[in-house]
Amino acid sequence: MKRIILLGPIFFAITLVTLTIIQYDFMRGLGWHPLNDPTFDWPSGLALGPYGIVMTATFIISGLLIAVLAIRLKADLESDITSQAGSVLLVLSGLALASLAFTTDPTIRSTPATWHGRIHDLSFVLLGLTLFPSMITLGFSFRQNEAWQKCSIYTWLTVILVVPSFILKGVFFYIFLFAILCWIEALAWKLSFLPTGATRS
Fold first, then answer.
1. Predicted pLDDT at 191
2. Using an 8 Å Cβ cutoff, are 172 and 183 in contact?
3. Structural contact between residues 149 and 143, judged by C-beta atoms closer than 8 angstroms
4. pTM over 0.85
5. Rounded CA separation 1/126 (Å)
6. Region 40-49: what's the mean pLDDT?
7. Do 176 and 166 touch, CB atoms closer than 8 A?
8. Can you say whether the dihedral through the CA atoms of 110, 101, 59, 141 is positive or negative?
9. Residue 37 — φ and ψ, nearest 5°?
10. pLDDT in tens, 116-168
11. DSSP structure class, residue 79
12. How much helix, strand and coil, in percent to the nearest 5, is found in the chain?
């Protein structure tokens, strides 16, 4: 399982790029543009296309792998309030990502919002409300653990980069996605080479 967690961010990135290329014309038809309006129904709109089931499955698999990663962190870090809170928040962010599997509604439409579209939008909000606090909290937890101290600085630098990128949207959203995937991959890489509980004092 430790090695499988390593594949999560890579799997998500490859799927995202591949589906965007394959469904490029479909996404353009929704109003999306890779430079002028990159967040217009992207990436969620990929689930509406002819290969949408792949994006739906990717949301679920990637979200669950993040939740598993968070549970592993909880087992390996010191049992204090920061590590426990940060791990729980990261689990919730993973579940929020998995919940994006509820299909979004296209922005341009003539019909009312659907129940699954509302759940999708709520899940996206919950993802932001849990992911950023989890990173900040885990940064403090890493700082207190000798084996994870370098990850503390890296985590906070990532937060400094991704929060403005998330707020500004546009092409900056690509930076947000890339930085988050790299951060998750870095944690998964470190955990994959540590026996459970090895970093506890």
1. 86
2. no
3. yes
4. yes
5. 26
6. 97
7. yes
8. positive
9. -150, 65
10. 999 999 999 999 999 999 999 999 999 988 889 899 999 999 999 999 998 88
11. S
12. 75, 0, 25
Q: How many whole angstroms separate alpha carbon 122 and alpha carbon 172?
A: 22
Q: Say what the pLDDT of residue 79 is.
A: 79
DSSP state of 49: S
Contact call for residues 180 and 131 (beta carbons, < 8 A): yes
Distance separating the N- and C-terminal Cα atoms of the chain: 24
**Contact at 8 Å (CB) between 66 and 93?**
yes
Question: Using a CB cutoff of 8 Å and minimum separation of 24, what contacts does 67-74 make?
Answer: 67/91, 67/94, 67/95, 67/98, 68/1, 68/5, 68/94, 69/5, 69/8, 69/94, 69/184, 69/187, 69/188, 69/191, 70/94, 70/134, 72/2, 72/5, 72/191, 72/196, 73/138, 73/187, 73/191
The answer to whether residues 19 and 41 touch, using CB atoms and an 8 Å cutoff, is: no
- Has residue 201 got a pLDDT over 50? no
Could you tell me the pLDDT band of residue 1, with boundaries at 50, 70 and 90?
Answer: low
